[in-house]
Task: inverse folding
């Protein structure tokens, strides 16, 4: 079984920073990519950032977070991070980690999701 666990959410003032972490564990043959999504109440879940786990580590960001958020990973620890700076009220949401994982050599790749961690930006 594969499990993704997020941490680092909390309450922060506008302009502040938070660092989210997500670690994958269990039966893992390879991780192709990892990413972060977020969902505010009454809104659709949206992409925040993704990163390729292979050489090069290509990244992709939503326009709303470019220049403020940075995604990174530690492949040895099966962990992805989201450094969030200059936080705005609009960043308030539940943040979810996901990963494209192949459990075994003979297994197809599957998407796995974490349980989510709440980020609240408020004065």
Result:
């Amino acid at each position: 079984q594969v499990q993704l666990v997020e941490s680092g959410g909390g309450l922060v003032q506008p302009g502040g920073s938070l660092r989210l972490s997500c670690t994958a564990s269990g039966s893992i043959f390879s991780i192709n990519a990892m990413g972060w999504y977020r969902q505010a109440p009454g809104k659709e879940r949206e992409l925040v950032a993704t990163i390729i786990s292979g050489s090069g580590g290509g990244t992709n960001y939503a326009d709303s977070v470019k220049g403020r958020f940075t995604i990174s990973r530690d492949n040895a620890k099966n962990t992805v991070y989201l450094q969030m700076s200059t936080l705005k009220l609009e960043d308030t949401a539940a943040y979810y980690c996901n990963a494209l994982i192949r459990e075994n050599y003979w297994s197809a790749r599957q998407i796995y999701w974490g349980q989510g961690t709440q980020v609240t930006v408020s004065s």
